[in-house]
Amino acid sequence: MTNHLPSGFIFGAATASYQIEGAVAEGGRTPSIWDTFSHTPGRTFNGDTGDVACDHYHRWSEDVALLDQLGVDAYRFSLAWPRIQPDGDGPGNTAGLDFYDRLVDGLLDRGITPVVTLYHWDLPQSLEDSGGWRIRSTAERFAHYTQIAHARLGDRVKDWITLNEPWCSSMLGYGTGRHAPGAREGDGALAAAYHLALGHGLATQVLRADTTARVGVTLNLQPVQPVTGRPQDVAAAERALMNSNLLFTDPILAGRYPTLARETYCAITDFSWMHDEDLAVISAPLDFLGVNNYFPSRVEAVEYEQPDPAQRTATDLGTHDVIDPRGETTQIGWPVEADGLRRLLVWLRDTYPSLPPIYVTENGRACDDVIAPDGTVDDPDRVRYLQEHLDAVAAAVADGVDVRGYFCWSLLDNFEWAEGYRMRFGLVYVDYPTQRRIPKTSFGWYRNRIAAQRKTPVA
């Protein structure tokens, strides 16, 4: 270890419901937008779906045993909304709630803290059919679902994350069409982003009724810089930063809607979905901020896809991410630059004076992992990536940023959304035809890193 993390620092691993659970038609679960999207030809690599995934619904006890072997302090997982509240309306589904009951108890029996994410992209399809996140009532439905989940699990679960990566849900789901529900819209994507933030605020109100609950939200954020000092590149980087970061950090952390967003998007929306009283709800104080980060962003100005501003989608910003061809990239094509995580954490501290404590709730890399003839899976690039990014976290802590934990993405190889099963992020290799789990070299490295942290003298 070249850098040290403070005593009491939390180490964890993370997963998401649709990516690992499978059993999409069992126990009363109804279809989500990802069931519909993945079953639509051409939407995912090789037509892959989450129908079986890692079969975690049936193999959860085996996966909890892996977490115990790994030695993590906490496990971040998400609840499937259509498993708990089929069709996004009405009372809770007993069978679905029973599944998460067993999982939570299994974690606690092994001394692992459950950290529950309420929404990791699997909106009930029936709610999308009614308008999805484009409409305000979905945010209100989300608050009701939160109430159902908390009523069953809140006596044991104290750490709650309202949303995971609302930028992806809105901009990839309703802007580029790359993710479910697969729309390419301007006003719709912006309304979705706003209503996701509102849903977060309304869910926070529900959770605050429990004075023992700790409430946060997870945002995927990037440090953004222009490729050159040319005015057009600087302006492009400002638009990119607005869209990727400020669209959520400003409302949630500062109670304001970005001025640049109003200026940039005025041709595609009248912002009529915004109500005066909403920002006070959205910006309710948090106990922590979850930060997901995988790579930094270097931006140059390019021509807009649509010359007519009124016809643009919310992601048509006249920007382009430049990846240095000489630099290292992951299997999925993302650049590797650990110091980007340090810069992001410092940027958050310097930009938001009332910033709550931070947990890095996702960080990891895809590798082209294979089973060797001796049955092992060696992934030295992932080991190096994790070490360098943990060092970057330690550097941010040394610079005064209040970072209290790190969750590796992911415990298991899994269904990687539109990329299907070809991208492997796990500490544990999953042989999908047999569902055999094989801990990789990185699993052992992370286990040893956690053990070493616990031997660190009290700071």
Short description:
The protein has one domain: Glycosidases (TIM Barrel), CATH 3.20.20.80. Strand 12 and strand 13 form a beta hairpin. 40% of the residues lie in helices and 14% in strands.
Describe it for me?
With 459 residues, the chain is of the alpha/beta class. The protein has a single domain, classed as TIM Barrel (Alpha-Beta Barrel), CATH 3.20.20. The chain is 40% helix and 14% strand. It contains 15 helices and 13 strands. The protein has helices at 17-20, 33-38, 56-70, 81-84, 94-109, 125-129, 136-153, 166-176, 187-208, 231-254, 259-265, 278-282, 339-351, 380-398, 441-454; strands spanning 10-14, 74-78, 113-119, 159-164, 214-220, 224-226, 288-292, 297-301, 319-321, 358-362, 403-409, 428-431, 436-439. It has an eight-stranded parallel barrel with strand order 1-2-3-4-5-7-10-11, surrounded by five helices. Strands 6-8-9 form a three-stranded mixed β-sheet, with helices on one face. A two-stranded antiparallel sheet has the order 12-13. A hairpin with a 4-residue loop joins β12 and β13 (436-439). The chain is globular, with a radius of gyration of 21 Å. The two termini are 16 Å apart. The mean pLDDT is 97.
